[in-house]
Specification:
By secondary structure, the chain is an alpha+beta fold. The chain is built from three helices and three strands; from the N terminus they run E-H-H-E-E-H.
Length: about 60
């Protein structure tokens, strides 16, 4: 099975133990890259991982 390349908002909610609203706030603030797929956002895994590791700007 191929390695996952994107996360859903719900996956980040569960990983971070936060709310959907907070994840959307992070997306809107440009903390990591996300693309809209239909009506939903998917978060680019590499971008999120860099943010989580503190390699990119934080809110």
């Amino acid at each position: 099975m191929a390695e996952k390349r994107v996360y859903t908002v719900q996956e980040l909610v569960e990983m971070l133990g936060t709310t959907r609203q907070y994840i959307y706030q992070l997306i809107n603030n440009g903390c990591f890259r996300a693309v809209k797929a239909g009506k939903r956002y998917v978060i680019i895994k590499s971008s999120f991982d860099e943010w989580l590791d503190g390699k990119s700007e934080e809110v």
